[in-house]
């Protein structure tokens, strides 16, 4: 993939872009294989490649510049904004949205936030694309409510310029620190969800829902979990850290009982909507902490699927999984270092199969999915 920003030294976020893609993928596979050293006889499946360009369904853009000439991209070393509107990681439909967004910023007179001076209003623009439909969701991260009336007044112009735009909201993040968003979300359109179809699943994202940024690789990840679950034929599955329910919905099969657990009530509501559309009567979702749910449960499932954030699993949950009657665990991880740590915490569970999925091309990051079975 050629990137003019990288070639000019304006953006170095893709730290491995100078490496041929096949070499990137091989290096990630080697790195992952080097970590679980205590596990013998692991079956390593071939790594899953990603499209090299246009694979991101979400853009998280820092806003800089001025009201009349806003820039959407990243901050440089001096705190100024580097415009990345033509970044080749974004598909054409996302790239095409940036010019109307800039025009809206100017029309509504939303001053970009100046990090050095600690003044201004607009900190980030977060854009999400549903590839199958072309529908868009936009979120404007503000320091305060000050621009809201003007934003509402000029919103019809933005909707006219972007006919695929379905959901718009403002997020309030008043604190001067490197935090992407705040706790308060203000709806600017009646619709506040975006339907993403991944591997045949209708997944409903609300503004603050977590979702994988690479549709093609996310689909491969769900398929792999489904294949292992079908082979294991469990009577009951728990999907811990379930988000909007991708693993839970994909692993549901006939009369199998599936429980998805997620701290975000908003994500649980989205997962329930998908479940109802699919007619999966034996699937339920619970808004709860994964560790507290497991430790407080009257019984354990046959199969647990865990997909924690980068920090990995809580040590208490590792201990519970290790000592429980759970027959198998599917562990999906975006951080192989914490994955290796957690495997060491569960010695009664043997690493049987593993696979690298390149969710984040041109960087050192990747997703790994593993199958653990009771030793």
TrEMBL record:
GO terms for molecular function: 4 iron, 4 sulfur cluster binding; metal ion binding; rRNA (uridine-C5-)-methyltransferase activity. The active site is at residue 334. InterPro entries: 23SrRNA_MeTrfase_RlmC (IPR011825), MeTrfase_TrmA_AS (IPR030390), MeTrfase_TrmA_CS (IPR030391), SAM-dependent_MTases_sf (IPR029063), U5_MeTrfase_fam (IPR010280). It comes from the Bacteria. Keywords: 4Fe-4S, Iron, Iron-sulfur, Metal-binding, Methyltransferase, rRNA processing, S-adenosyl-L-methionine, Transferase. S-adenosyl-L-methionine binds at residues 212, 241, 262, 307. GO terms for biological process: rRNA base methylation. Its EC number is 2.1.1.189. It is an enzyme of class 2 (transferase). Belongs to the class I-like SAM-binding methyltransferase superfamily. RNA M5U methyltransferase family. This is 23S rRNA (uracil(747)-C(5))-methyltransferase RlmC. It comes from Mizugakiibacter sediminis.
């Amino acid at each position: 993939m050629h990137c003019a920003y990288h070639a000019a030294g304006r953006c170095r976020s893709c730290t491995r872009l100078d490496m041929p893609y096949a070499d990137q993928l091989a290096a990630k596979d080697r790195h992952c294989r080097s970590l679980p050293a205590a596990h013998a006889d692991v079956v390593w499946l071939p790594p899953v490649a990603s499209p090299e360009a246009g694979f991101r369904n979400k853009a998280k853009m820092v806003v800089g510049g001025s009201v009349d000439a806003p820039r959407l991209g990243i901050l440089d070393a001096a705190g100024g904004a580097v415009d990345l509107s033509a970044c080749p990681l974004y598909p054409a439909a996302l790239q095409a949205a940036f010019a109307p967004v800039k025009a809206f910023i100017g029309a509504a007179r939303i001053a970009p936030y100046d990090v050095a001076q600690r003044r201004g209003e607009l900190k980030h623009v977060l854009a999400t694309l549903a590839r199958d439909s072309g529908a868009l969701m936009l979120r404007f991260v503000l320091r305060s409510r000050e621009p809201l009336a003007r934003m509402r007044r000029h919103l019809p112009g933005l909707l006219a310029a972007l006919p695929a735009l379905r959901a718009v909201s403002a997020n309030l993040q008043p604190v001067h620190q490197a935090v992407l968003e705040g706790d308060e979300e203000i709806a600017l359109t009646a619709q506040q969800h975006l339907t993403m179809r991944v591997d045949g699943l209708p997944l409903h994202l609300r503004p603050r829902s977590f979702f994988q940024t690479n549709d093609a690789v996310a689909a491969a990840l769900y398929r792999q979990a489904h294949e292992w679950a079908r082979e294991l034929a469990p009577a009951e599955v728990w999907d811990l850290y379930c988000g909007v329910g991708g693993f839970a919905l994909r692993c549901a099969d006939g009369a199998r009982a599936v429980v998805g657990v997620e701290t975000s009530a908003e994500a649980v509501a989205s997962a329930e909507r998908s479940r109802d559309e699919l007619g999966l009567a034996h699937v339920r979702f619970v808004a709860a902490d994964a560790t507290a749910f497991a430790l407080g449960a009257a019984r354990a499932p046959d199969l647990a699927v865990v997909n924690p954030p980068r920090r990995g699993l809580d040590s208490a949950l590792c201990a519970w999984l290790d000592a429980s009657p759970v027959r198998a665990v599917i562990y999906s991880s975006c951080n192989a270092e914490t994955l290796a740590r957690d495997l060491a915490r569960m010695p009664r569970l043997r690493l049987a199969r593993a696979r690298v999925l390149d969710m984040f091309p041109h960087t050192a990051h990747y997703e790994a999915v593993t199958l653990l079975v009771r030793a």
